[in-house]
Amino acid sequence: MKGFQVERWDRVSVAATAAVGLVLVAFGFAPFVLGANGVDKLTTLFVYLILALMWNALAGYAGLVSVGQQAFFGLGAYFTIQLSNHGVGVYLSLVLAALLAGVVAISTSFFVLRLRAGVFAIGTWVVAEAFHLLVNLDHSVGGVTGTSLTALNGFSAGDRREYNYWATFGFTVAILIATFVLLRSRTGASLQAIRDDEEAAASVGVRVLGTKWIVYVFAAVGCGAAGALWLATSITFQPNSYFSVQWTAYMIFMVLVGGLGTFEGPIIGAVVFFLIQDNFGDQGVWYLVGLGGAAIFFALFMPRGIWGTIADRNEIRLLPVGYRLRRGTEH
Amino acid sequence: MTLLSVEGLVARHGLLEAVRDVTFELDEGETLALVGANGAGKTTLLRTIAGAHRIASGRIRFQGRDIVDDSAHRRVRMGIALVPEGRRLFTGLTVEENLQLAGQCGRRGPWNLESVYEAFPLIASRRKRRAGNLSGGEQQATAIGRALMTNPRVVLLDEVSLGLAPVAVDAVYRSLDGVLAGGATVVLVEQDLGRALSVADRVICMLEGRIVLQGTAKELTREQVVAAYFGLGREQGAPA
Amino acid sequence: MIWANQVVTGILLGGYYALLASGLSLMFGVMRIINLAHGDLAILGAFFTFLVANDLGWNPFLALVIVLPGMALVGWLLQRTMFERSLRSGVLVPLLTTFGLAIVIENLLFAKYGADTRSLGPQIGNLAFDSWKINSQIYIGHLSALIFVVAVGVLGVLHILLRRTPIGRALRATAEDADTAELVGVNSRSVYGIASGIAVAIAGLAGVFLAMRSSYDPYSGPLQLIFAFEAVVIGGIGSLWGTLAGGIILGVAQNVGAQLNPEWQILAGHIVFLAILAGRLMLTAIEERGGLDVFLGRAS
């Protein structure tokens, strides 16, 4: 087409990406700058961020509304304990546990991904409950009462805090980069197509099932990592708390509020959620009522979330995950 | 007496203007044929009158009252009935149930199960069949019967001959004759110009959303209508 | 013969599941909404009955006179305020809205009533534990039998409602094609409100029965939702009587599982559910590929 160019980068997105890169590098130095409390909080924030990114990938990109991601969150923690109990180094266990969660996802995917919409949602929940019950039956990790990640006692509190931080930070960065790359790849375009209209996408040759599979397994690894990291920071493992559907509630809140289907949305949602959790988390049930109410509000009135609404109104795209059409050779 | 009056009606599908500034009136007892090529806006026009489609601007008056803010089911209760393009029967319900459902709207009049079966003998023997198991002609008869069961003052018929074999179309029009002869007020969208001109009192021809020709069936020749239908005689490149 | 008793009690338990599931099924059938707050609404019904029975000192069965219409009103209100908006917004919004609603209900109940497990059993006297002895191994609980009979009765009433009444026709037509239903004079908003009211009232009734035959607390909802959903899916989505069959299969699976090992009760239900779902998916996959022979590579 004469006079038009398709571009991926423009001035704004180059600046934004550079800024994000710098910010990430800066965060790498946090343990040297912040006190113990600050590091703990950042670690928690990053775990939330991982969860938000994963749920957004599933629902926002692949159109898969999962109410059962807590399965992988819990399995990530469970596998970490099992590996650690069998002599594997703690931090290596974290990584392997996340990957094992992915393996579990591969096996459930054959069945779960063939379910549609609402059936898929509750189907994932049932699968999560099934895993919850299976773990409860495993007396080697204390059954319902749970156990602790005793291997962590080998580290001093200070070291543990730092290692946890960097492990969490590392996973977060890896996941951010992976998501970025995924969205910019052919798979990213396929996801866009699937989200807009699955049948139409299939008719132009998009491998719908295969693409969903990639996202599903990716999300399982991410949630598994989050669970393992949560275990590393809280040390105790109680199946009821790790396999609770509460985690899905948090994920939904973060993504809805931040902006479903956008890259920046989950980041904003995680920060908002973290701030609310930090300040109001001890309000008990009223806090949860508020979360639920907010989810309803956003679902009905602002389904594009904070970022989505802002971005739609102002045509802003900070990070270059899409394409732009430009006239001539303007730069 | 003017039953239905449409003024400056504009309706859109997304950004596309399907109906552009349409104005016309319909008197009681009239049969108005609405003709035009596919995409001319005929179905959209009928649907906006019936309340199934939002209008962008303009007015629709029924029995003197502006009905633009009334929902579709309220308009049915006022006496406007649409036989939708493609029939749109409830396939899970039987023929009789389809009819009964329409009869529940609460309007009184000459139409009830017996009179509908009498007017459409085609479906009288099919009354307990599921609507999804009927032939094209039977479905069309049921759709028209269903609209009549609401005892309407105005019947809007959208493409009743679409997809039907000529024999079936004949049967449908035979039954329609009875309805029309009874003094019903009808707007009929029909692709078959011959039939349209033979049953109608007045004809409106639409092209790309606008009315390009209006007149009584008697005074318009077939050639005139065909020319308007295809937009012949318009300058090339003239704005539509 | 212990197995025979488990099967019998399982069948009766299936009646409860069918009752619980019928509301979910109705709402999905008419509005295509999977109400993730369904279980919590059932628990709401249980608490509501507790409130009436406690504050007014009424017998729980008598309290239903207030509770059922009350729950129907709740359903109608939810439809008009929340579900309606989410109907035209695609698949995501109803799921998210009802999920948020579930969280709100659970935690509001917790705020008011605390975490205590409760039961309405004590208030119905002997009904809670009397049973008929069929033979030396098989016992049929009075309450379980009552619940089963009520469940079948409710399904029967729904069946007649849908098949033989004007409102039933309106419900079926709106479920199939709401736009065309409007074009023949059906007020679809009204129809949705009625369907929602009926669905939530039945859910409330199931919650009351749960409270009578067992115990409940503010967070019991999600598990009930899962049971209801399993019953609907096992029996086949869209089939009212299929829900009864699904409930029975689930009940029997759970009881047989419990007999093998008490820890396995709920898990047994999940496994049977997943197995049946997987089986159905396989059948569809085989059909799509042209039949079993083609699938197995014996023909093409």
Could you please describe the fold and organization of this structure?
The complex is a heterotrimer of chains A (331), B (240) and C (300). With 331 residues, chain A is mainly alpha-helical. Chain A has 15 helices and four strands. Chain A has a two-stranded antiparallel sheet. Chain A has a two-stranded antiparallel ribbon with strand order 2-3. Chain A starts with a strand and ends with a strand. Chain B is of the alpha/beta class and 240 residues long. In chain B, the strands form two sheets. Chain B has a six-stranded mixed sheet with strand order 6-7-8-3-9-10, with helices on both faces. A four-stranded antiparallel sheet of chain B has the order 2-1-4-5, covered by helices on one side. The N and C termini of chain C lie far apart (49 Å). Chain C is 76% helix and 2% strand. In chain C, helix 1 runs antiparallel to helix 8. A two-stranded antiparallel sheet of chain C has the order 1-2. Chain C is an all-alpha fold and 300 residues long. Chains in contact: A-C, B-C. Chains A and C meet through helix 6, helix 12 and helix 14 of A and helix 3, helix 4, helix 9 and helix 11 of C.
Q: What is this entry, summarized?
A:
Chain A has 331 residues and is mainly α.
Radius of gyration of chain B: 17 Å
Physical arrangement of strands within the biggest beta sheet of chain A: 1-4
Helix content of chain A: over 70%
In total, how many beta strands of chain A?
4
Relevant terms:
heterotrimer, A: 331 residues, mainly alpha, two-stranded antiparallel ribbon, two-stranded antiparallel sheet, 15 helices, 73% helix, 4% strand, C: 300 residues, 12 helices, 2 strands, 76% helix
Set down the secondary structure blueprint.
The complex is a heterotrimer of chains A (331), B (240) and C (300).
Chain A lengths: L3 E4 L3 H18 L1 H4 L2 H26 L8 H16 L4 H23 L4 H21 L9 E2 L8 H28 L1 H11 L1 H6 L4 H27 L1 E2 L1 H4 L3 H13 L6 H16 L4 H17 L3 H10 L9 E4 L4
Antiparallel strand pairs in A: 1-4, 2-3
Helix pairs in contact in A: 3-7, 3-10, 3-12, 3-13, 4-5, 4-6, 4-10, 5-10, 7-8, 7-10, 12-13, 12-14, 12-15
Chain B lengths: L1 E12 L2 E12 L3 E6 L5 H9 L6 E6 L2 E2 L5 H7 L1 E4 L11 H9 L9 H7 L1 H4 L11 H13 L5 E5 L7 H16 L3 E5 L3 H7 L2 E6 L2 E7 L5 H9 L10
Helix pairs in contact in B: 3-6, 6-7
Chain C lengths: L1 H30 L6 H18 L4 H28 L4 H22 L17 E3 L5 E3 H23 L1 H11 L1 H6 L4 H26 L7 H15 L4 H21 L4 H24 L3 H4 L5
